[in-house]
Amino acid sequence: MTVNEQQSRKDLVLDVARGMMAAARTAPKAKGVDNLEIVTLNGDDLHRLAQKMRALSEENGFKFFLRDANNVEQSDAVVVIGTRLGVFNLNCGMCGFPTCADKLQFKDIPCAFNTNDLGIALGSAAAYAADHRIDSRIMYSAGAAAHALGIVSSECKAVLAILLSCSGKSPYFDRVADKTPQATK
User: Fold this and answer.
1) Best exposed site among 147, 162, 168, 180 by fewest CB in 10 Å?
2) Which CATH number do you get for residue 171?
3) Which is it for the CA torsion 27, 146, 58, 172, positive or negative?
4) What does pLDDT average to over the chain?
5) How many structural domains does the chain have?
6) Tens digit of pLDDT for each residue in 131-184?
7) Are the CB atoms for 57 and 69 separated by under 8 Å?
8) Which residues are CB-contacts of 53 (< 8 A; sequence separation ≥ 6)?
9) Residue 128 near residue 25, CB atoms below 8 Å
């Protein structure tokens, strides 16, 4: 039997994405409360995500969404991780409010532990990709587009995405930045 590397690497990336989802799911979480939603996109869904990123760039003027959309289309898969908001009744004040009861007046302000849990999950997932020699890059822009497309529930207020590629050179390394003044937005 002959195995063609070019064909098998697509399967490998999806296997690694599955492992990344498990790594994110099993990452430590505050008080053991799991507020994460995790999905993997590939195939035509990557084009749909890139198109949404381009549309969002038109709306918000952020040119880096255009650059990042190109990276999505160069990717083999994208892992999307979002967190629903909740409070942990620790009254830590890290969200800017003295108590969790005070914060509850503002439902769209994340609890610091929600975003900490998201960051730990992203780190675990990205480490899994690195351990399997798959190039990756965490992006806000792709997460925002995934959220806008409803890929994760509207309850997820913080959403980021990890782009994955297995090629001769990482598409996430020498990225061409737009030099216009709006590019800094």
Assistant:
1) 168
2) 3.40.109.10
3) positive
4) 92
5) 1
6) 999 999 999 999 999 999 999 999 998 999 999 999 999 999 877 665 444 444
7) yes
8) 65, 66, 68, 69, 72, 141, 142, 144, 145
9) no
